[in-house]
Amino acid sequence: MNSRLTLWWSRLAAMTVKELLQLFRDGFLMFAIVFLFTADIYMTRNVRLELNHATVVVHDADHSAASRELIYRFRPPYFQLGGEIQDSREGQALLDQGQALAVLDIPPYFQRDLQSGRPTDVQVLVDTSNTVLGTLAASYSGQIIGRYGFEAALARMGASEASLDTVPMIQDQHRVWYNPNQNDAWFIPISELLTVITVMAIMLPAAAAVREKERGTIEQLLVSPLTPALILLPKVISMTLVILAGTAISLFLVLVPVFGVPIKGSLPLFFAVTTLYTVATSGLGLYIATLSRNLAQAAMLAIFILMPMVFLSGAWTPPEAMPAGLREAMYLSPLYYFIEMGYGILLKGAGLDVLWDSLLGLTLLGVGIFGFGVRRFRRQFG
Amino acid sequence: MGEAAPLTPAPAVRVQGFGKRYRRQAAVAGVDLEVRRGEIYGLIGPDGAGKSSLMKAVAGVLAFEEGSIEMFGIRIDSEAAAERVKGRLGFMPQGLGLNLYPELSVEENIDFFARLRGVPAAEIAARKAKLLAMTRLDRFTGRPMKHLSGGMKQKLGLVCTLIHEPELIVLDEPTTGVDPVSRRDFWAILAELLREKGITALISTAYMDEAERFHRLSLMHGGRVLASGEPDAIRARTPGSVLELEAEPQVEALDRIQASLAQAESVGPRLRVFVDDAAPEAAVGTVAGLLKGLSLRDLHATTPDLEDAFVALLRRQRLVEERAVAKPRAGDGDPPGDDVAILAKDLTRDFDGFRAVDRASFTVHQGDIFGLVGANGAGKTTLIKMLTGILPPSDGEGRVAGADMHFAAQAIKARIGYTSQAFSLYQDLSVLENLRLYARIYGVARHAAGERIEQVAELTGLTGRERQLAGRLPLGIRQRLALACAMVHRPRILFLDEPTSGVDPIGRRRFWDILVHLARVEQVAILITTHYMSEAEHCDRLALMHAGRIVADDPPAALKQALREEAGELLEVATDRPLAAMALLEQAGFAGVALFGRHIHLFARDAHTATREIQTILAGRGIGLASVTPRPPSLEDVFVYRITALEQGEQRL
Fold first, then answer.
1. CATH code, B623
2. Final residue in a domain of this structure, among B253, B286, B303
3. Nearest-CA residue of chain B relative to A213?
């Protein structure tokens, strides 16, 4: 019995070393791995989910001190002025061409009306084809104009800004937790890293298995005394090792030094969760390998599986923004749990006492997915 | 159309100083050849000889750097020039049905090529009907191409190549991977089509024994032409004699001969020796002298074939890799255990109502080389899958290496070695890494593995190449690596599925040297499949499979003897108008009439009466008869005769 176990381990080790050797000799794949874990995540450095010098063009029909005052409140970093236009039709055209995000339209007699206390309107046209930016632009400009109107009203009443303190008002004081500076620079690269891990966890085992089919080497293995488990486990083990190494590199060479992501929770827990997630997801890779005859087919199928998985994970769209139905469907995306735990551990310093339910969810789902992948693989190669 | 092609000023193809490089590697260099109108010109050589590059360049689908190619007197030096001759040219690339569309039916494929080539709509139907009838594909017009057999795919490829009635067709290895019966069928159809249309053909092949099909040919190796001319003229380039003999003990006899003569090999129970520059009598004396003290039988001279000449040419031009294969020392390996290695009894395998293997029974003893031959789809692969423990049999029994197939598949897998048809080792691992991997997979103890790996590397001539990546090795050496990996755990039985496909004759000889030593010295049982009938001669026993059944199982000599008793003597008829003569002889009721270049082969009960009959028939039509000579039948003759007889029997049912 003991010698059989030794033999089993020896075979497992030999096959795992073989997988790693093959991977290291595949220049293209190695480049892709290194690129995705470093440069790709580094490139998210300048991606912000906030307004960044959004262009505003102005149609100023008043040309007064008051209108100038309002216009110059649309300032960097959120806005920048894209110049003045002669009529509103021109503004429409600039919006259509995407050369401006918003058009500010100031009517004639703006200053006169404002000073005489008559109600007056300004029009803001916003391009919200990109909802996030559009909504932000509408909301920010609303705030700017509101604030200006408020100040103008105070001035007419002869009150200064300082006297505002005596006016009864609700002071809105919010505290932001976990990411007090609301630093997008943390959220996006982590999201990207977890997505890269997902892509790798599906693609690498699928590629390793399909390559054996493509080159016919699987035939030689099937005639050997290897069991299907000894063919597939080394692929999962070696690829998980590679992904863990990639994650460590990404974390310590990119996320922490470049983005200043704080690692508030336990690193061992983070890597343990990553391992669990990678193994679970590799089941999908193995399943893909049983369906495809070559690498191109495997890549197509991987995209087919990846897209809904990422969409339903909360990586880009928070669960709170999902309609009923899809929101429940998120429980089927292993990436959903992984993201919960990834943010939880890295940003919130959460431990198992908080994350146990996500861990349980991922474990159950993982057993299901991996078991399914292994079953399909064994059926084809058993 | 006369058979002696009319002398025309410009040849169909003239190639001068042709050279082609891929990156910095020269694939072909300095090739000159001339294909006359109306002839079948052959390019013969192993994989990597440069045949495909040359053919693609002639077909105008490959740009080249050196030399010139002229077609019908038009120099092909630009896109425009290539365009001008394209209509007069048909090209069939390498690979079974690679130029066809798998999803389209036979008829749709032909229609597509007809329209592509701008064949007038009015003519399509007539041409199609004629070609379909000749290739006997007319019963399958509605069948999708992907469901055709290998031989049928090649015939369809030929039809699609001929639909626009080209004057020259270029066929790249049309018979590779096709079984001998379909191969012979293909040649017959081709000969008939060419005769009728007066077409010129440039055809490449990796099978040396197809040389007789060509009027003239070029032998290629390593991107160069070794020799060109008629088959007889090429054989004459390497003067010498070929001897065959039986000697006991065979291994010692071979060792002694190889010590002083470079070109010697064992072929089954016999040895075949090429003695340079010696008349037959002198050669017999030389060999007998070398083997003094051993028991010799049946030492005689025989006609050298093209493969002998090819190997001799390579030797003379010093293109042969130094002989590196070491001999295993007697006593290597386990002592022979129970004598029976493989026992199959009524093995049967069904797939969804289709019987792939039907009651196959045979026995292979330790130390035997057992050959399995048959067309694609005859059931060889399924049979091997059952024997190697991958596929459980539906019915029947089998024991392999002492383990029962029904209950101990895993034990079988551990005790056998296997190499698959395609090279199935890791190309991105080095020789040593591959060997180590398989040593560990098969559970060779760590302390013993190093020594054993050294041993198999030496035996297969891989010493010194341990650090090279498997993917960078030449084909022949790769196959030896596959063999080395398969035997690293000292299996008692080796399964080799077409191990020498595409390997050059020298590589094949070296491979067989190793196999013979394994069988004779280490008593390993070897089960091998092959499409090379010349290679089947090496086997101690040969099983012929057809439609899932084993229809013959005997030593090669016995198979040939049985053929003589059943069909008679094989006669070779040389005439000045072989095509016309062939038709007449077929009408006269001779069996197995087939055209080989300028010669006709046929079977006759009695050589004397048959010769007189042939003389009368041909003289009656004014066809000149040069000679009628009896020839020893080859295993291909056996194969084709048996399978054809079985197929005809089925059709009658």
1. 3.30.70
2. B303
3. B424
